[in-house]
DNA sequence: CATGAATGAGACTTCATTCAT
DNA sequence: TATGAATGAAGTCTCATTCAT
């Protein structure tokens, strides 16, 4: 709970929460909803348990969210929007578009950035992954508004590096797919191994080898 | 493709053996349970809907499966076991261990094999993916009994090809991770694009490029 | 189960079972019905458990007994009838009516007789006691056909001894009530103490003191 | 009868204390649960009927009592505790220990007191009697916490009167058993005859004769 | 705004009973 | 006659949602 709270506090400052007016109770409700949904899945979670963990009465939830599903969406929809942020906001955009000289630096930055993001929003991402298959609206939202923009942005980057001549001449979407697959695979395994550093999982090395693998795979002479 | 045939027959035998003791109604129950679980998720599925789609009385479900959860497990547990089959059966083992001369042939066979498997069990795999996070027993089963064996088998193959000298000298587990990530990424995107063949997705080409990417990434001079 | 079976074997020989035709399965059904009803009570017993313990199929029960209630009655109704037997049959009747010279001998015989009876039919009596309140037919049967006859017989005995002059001149029904209360109290406590013989419960002594208490209470100078 | 009044008030206070926290609906649920359980037995009663008679929705029952069994226990457990009250409270204790001069007065008081108690709690006692055999916890509670204390108290009284010399020198437990048997027998028959006063059952006389019987049986010269 | 008792639809499950084999 | 799969009514219990306080 504390962990979730911390993240939330951060979110509160950064996002709409700061501008909108959320009562303290509402914040607590959201926090425990995230907690419970992530723990048991949306369908298996009961509003009464959420209320209990939030320390509010059952009815209070329905004062802020008309239905249980609205509560879910109030968690998941903003999360989807936030997924796109780094690709659109000054920070990431600026970096990718101009600064880095070589592609491996881009990969390194992306890995760093996504790991941080996942760590901070693990619970919400878990909920998102679980519920996406059952909510067409979310799927459409994710695909049209988010994925499209992300890919568009990434495409530009890839094309830029292809133009520099060392990268293989594949369709940019293919390159993006190969990069993302490999990176996500690295992050997934890393997550399973609990980010520990030992003989079984030498994170720094694995990351470098992963980047090297991609670079070689894309035709950069190593 | 002789090997693929062999697997197919073995799977058939196994499935038949199980279903021989099934009444027609029980088969129908299983089929609609898979259908409904895949469609709505386990927790959001009701036994009454499963019964309805199977064309049986609700009570009939509970004559064959003591609880709703037992029904789920009767679907998911065998699926987990089947996941391992191709890595353990003589057919596949023999092939991988000795027959193929170059690593890209191995990759090609694996891709073929897994695509076929996923196509045949898509619904069940969807259920499996959805439910794994909520059932520790399944997690343990998957990790200990299945994953361990699969990795062990794959490790042998990798080591054999590393010994031939053209492949980079990385930990075999790292190589396996990189291969699987890339292949799964290919299969995932392919699945989303619905296996269509058009300007957007030229499957034959994507597959070859994916294999080439891996081979290059692993140090084979292209 | 063995215990119950033994009793049943005896019953079989003695009662209608010998004349009627009971299949072996039917006997087993009755035996396990008695067992389960006594253990869980009629309403909380399931025909499926009875079938299971009897080692027959669920349907078999309903081939012999149209309903679950008929199965109950086939156990309980004969039991009620048997309750009266000792008061009507030659054995007991003869004894009470003529042989014994003093009332304490009558009491002693009754105690002996009832203890034996209860021991042999404990399960069935337990069922009877549990179910009597919920089945008017049984109540009527018990009251009219059984109790009336028993009391009638007992009344004669009491009157006979009253005529001998040492017993108080109370309504015979009052005397019967006092005797039965005291005797049942003795048997009840004895049953609780599990018929053990030790410092806590010296059965022989308790029985004699009980008889002495009744005799004194009824005016016999001790 | 001052003592009886005292008890009454104490009981009232205790009951009120419990019911003060009860909503009107909860009281109604309890009342109809007692009604239905007494009428049909616990296992044969349905929560839906209880709800119906109480004029509430079925779900309302489960808001107050987690399970049907908890509802039963909420009725039966306090009843067991109340059974002991008169034997432990100052009122009764004082009376028995010191005030009464002769044993028949004690008996008379006890009869009076228990008849009143039974009349007031007939339904609950019926439920208790029915369910005791199937709930080990209740058995233990009754035996350890209740019966032991009651017997201890009664023993003191008996010993006191034995010391006065007119009572037979039997183990006090034997004397208690004989008294209780006889009294319970009287109350039982009286209950069956519905407390009517006619030629068949002259209550005042039966009661006196019962007391006389006990007194004589215990050695008091009549 | 917040509460929490109340609701009633519907969830899972049990079980007496039927019937084709 | 015996079986046991199938039934469907009914049982216990859960839960999102409402509403008087």
From TrEMBL, chains A, B, C, D:
InterPro entries per record: Homeodomain-like_sf, HTH-type_Tx_Regulator, HTH_TetR, Tet_transcr_reg_TetR-rel_C_sf
Domain HTH tetR-type residue range list: 23-83
Membrane spanning residue stretches: 71-89
Annotated Pfam families: TetR_N
Keywords attached to this entry: DNA-binding, Membrane, Transmembrane, Transmembrane helix
SUPFAM superfamilies on file: Homeodomain-like, Tetracyclin repressor-like, C-terminal domain
GO molecular function: DNA binding
DNA-binding region, residues: 46-65
Protein name stated in the entry: TetR/AcrR family transcriptional regulator
Organism annotation: Paenibacillus albus
